[in-house]
Amino acid sequence: MIDGATDSNTRRLASADLIAAFDLPAAALVNQRVPKKLLVENGAPTTADRKLIQDGIEEITWVAALKPASIGVPEYRDEQRAYLELAVLLVDLREAGKVSRLAELIHRAIPYPVLLILADSNGLILSLAHIRWAQKEADKTVLDGEPSMARLSEQINGDASGLSDFLQALSLRSQPRADLHALYQGWLDTLTALQAAAVTGRFAKSENAEQASARRAALHRCREIDADVVRLRLAAGKEKQMARQVAINMEIKALLAVRQLVVTCV
Description:
Helix content: 40-55%
Largest sheet: 6 strands, mixed
Strand order of the largest sheet: 1-2-5-6-7-10
Strand content: 15-25%
Structural class: alpha+beta
Radius of gyration: 20 Å
Order of helices and strands: HEHHEHEEEHEEEEEHHHH
């Protein structure tokens, strides 16, 4: 069972199911604890971030180091980045909340692309984020875009088979193996397919890079529209003039119509 965990031991068992789905060779497994102070020193730019790491994280486990020698996938280098290794991390959280910020801090602190598994009282979250060289600091890396995240649920819009299909798609053997960048992008595209399933109700892998990119753009637009609809509904609830209420509701209706069109690209 992947979701519905209520304590750290149960979450660890659920996490083991997810880690097993990656089908990693034994040579890549590390399974070592990582001190929180390393995140504090390398990825916490503010006092509030340092407190969030100290108070929000129970335990960090370095699950696996995916290197050319351990998984048989070549490294990747270009002018923007060097992917010499991918890291798999499991982070047990003390409570739900501020997960997005914690994920961002962890991705920033690790100088490798990370397959990040976060476990809180509501279950598991998978997060991935590309990195690149910092423009003004030699040998420093920064995030190349926002982390892509999805909470794993036992069902996707009532379909229990969706999560099973997703877990099967995570297998290392099912991912591109040209180099570590292509491999990481393959996992990110698989995560995008899971995010799309939350909208469409059906999990389906992207057929190519172009479709995966279009899906990400459509999902981003859906999130923008959803935020606008929430904002407008709040405004309509506070509006006292009937004519203005009608205008706001018409605007909401138009946005929802646009969203229906956008969903066809997900």
